[in-house]
Amino acid sequence: MKRLFNISQLILIGISLSITTTNINAETAKSAFIQAITTGQAELSKSNSPLNSMDLQLPVPLKKEHLLFTIQGSNTVGAQLTPNLAQGFLEILGATDIHAVNTDTNEKLVVGKYQRENQQTLLKIAIAAHGSSTGFKGLLNGKADIAAASRPIKSKEKVLLNTRHKSFDGPKEIVLGIDGLAIIIHPNNSLNSLTLTQLEKIFTGRITSWKTLNGSSKLIHVKSRDKKSGTYDTFKHLVLRKKKLISNAVRFESNNSLSESVSRDIDAIGFVPLASIYDAKAVSISDTTSASDVTFPGILPSELTVATEDYPLSRRLYFYRSSNPKYPGVVDAFLSYAESNSGQEQVKHSGFVSQQIYALPSDLEDKSAWWRLNLNIRFQKDTSNLDTKANADVQRLVAFLSNKDHNFSQIQFVGYSNPTNSKRDHSPLSRLRAQNVRWALRNIGVKNRIKTVAGSSVFVADPNSIRKEKNRRVEVWVQ
């Protein structure tokens, strides 16, 4: 099998994918999960990490302190995940006495002592978490080496960066992990589910009391993230669309503060990442629009529903690389660390859903049953080309299938399209999406028997909704 990443530059010590447990309804299927996936490429992990001896491109002799790079942007990413990644990265570099120092509100330095021969320096990574838009502004004004974002870069942001740095593709994008925007209420609130249409009416002020929702005549207390937040930007995109948030909504810069406030207010409702639910109660969400004549079942935010991105309010977390960081080798190594098994462990540890792969049998009693993998391959908008995450997932899938403990005889890719016209046969496009994934695997050297089929009309999103792109996907099954 071909080597999945350029390990001479980066620290991918194989992609040793380990299983994470997942809340799936009553969790009766947990015992049937694959218990462990040892190592994707164990021989790589035995070799010395290139970072332990890499040239950090620091001046000689060493100064007392060196700022390696600066990360600005999303509070969702920056509150805990980015500091955890920074500390793990410094540890792999060989630094000692690694710790984080708060320097201002939502700002900190992660520092560690670094020894080179008889010289010692203090390595620093600066983190400022004031919202996704501030990260892209940091790339634009040269104050950030990496932008952390809980939403994709906007077209206008990409145009500004391309103009400033005379590039055409925009900053390099990597997907860190998956998060879900949980709709939270007080734990004693009897409400259990909402549709996206109801959500939109609540947060725009067209539903102002709990009367039609849980029978209470009390007013709804709407709580929201601030305007600079990527969390709010995602909520606005998925729920509010072009409508305005109710004017009396209480705004918070921190997800944790918002969650704490909701858990203390019986009449409150808000939205936070999965990692910030805490003592509040999450409700299931149905992707049913006012224009639909079909009610879609509600889906609770969980590790599985978010990992497959089937949950209506799931989203990706991103890093975007500057075109001209001061120490490009170090920045590239850090980004690859974030995608590696070690980095994805930090994603899981920080409360988000990692991109490690496991399988779930469709029939616990049938040993020959097909097993569903916890990922959906998705595509660039309006095309059959794999998107950023899918390209990385294909490589993770190769490592998963190459594991000597797996004896899967065949793989099945089930392609789906969005049924925009009920009279049109969508199976050719659905099958083409599945074939594109098969071709991508063949290009990397996978030799398993691979079957591609067009799935029936199974919707994960209302075909009329803003999320209709999620219907265009490929599920992965193994046997």
Average pLDDT: 82
Number of domains: 3
* Structure class: alpha/beta
Task: Give the helix tally.
Answer: 14
According to CATH, what is the topology of the largest domain?
Answer: D-Maltodextrin-Binding Protein, domain 2
CATH level 4 superfamily of the largest domain: Periplasmic binding protein-like II
- Report the sheet-strand fraction: 15-25%
Q: State the end-to-end distance.
A: 21 Å
DSSP helix fraction:
25-40%
Shape: globular
Q: Please give the largest β-sheet.
A: 11 strands, mixed
CATH architecture of the largest domain: 3-Layer(aba) Sandwich
Uncertain parts: 1-50
The CATH class designation of the largest domain is Alpha Beta
Radius of gyration equals: 23 Å
Beta strand count: 18
Can you tell me about this structure?
The chain is α/β, with parallel strands linked by helices and 479 residues long. It folds into 3 domains: 43-174 and 318-349, 3-Layer(aba) Sandwich (D-Maltodextrin-Binding Protein, domain 2), CATH 3.40.190; 179-307, D-Maltodextrin-Binding Protein, domain 2; 359-478, OmpA-like domain (60s Ribosomal Protein L30, Chain: A), CATH 3.30.1330. The chain has helices at residues 42-46, 75-78, 81-93, 132-141, 155-165, 196-204, 211-214, 230-240, 255-263, 303-307, 328-339, 341-349, 388-402, 427-444; strands spanning 65-73, 96-104, 107-116, 119-129, 146-149, 172-185, 193-195, 221-225, 250-252, 268-273, 281-282, 284-286, 314-321, 359-361, 371-378, 410-416, 449-454, 473-478. The strands form 3 sheets. Strands 1, 2, 3, 4, 5, 6, 8, 9, 10, 11 and 13 form an 11-stranded mixed beta sheet that branches. β8 (221-225), α8 (230-240) and β9 form a beta-alpha-beta unit. α3 (81-93) runs antiparallel to α12 and α11 packs across α12. The longest helix has 18 residues, at 427-444. The chain starts with 41 loop residues before the first helix and ends with a strand. 46% of the residues are buried. Residues 1-50 have low confidence and may be disordered.
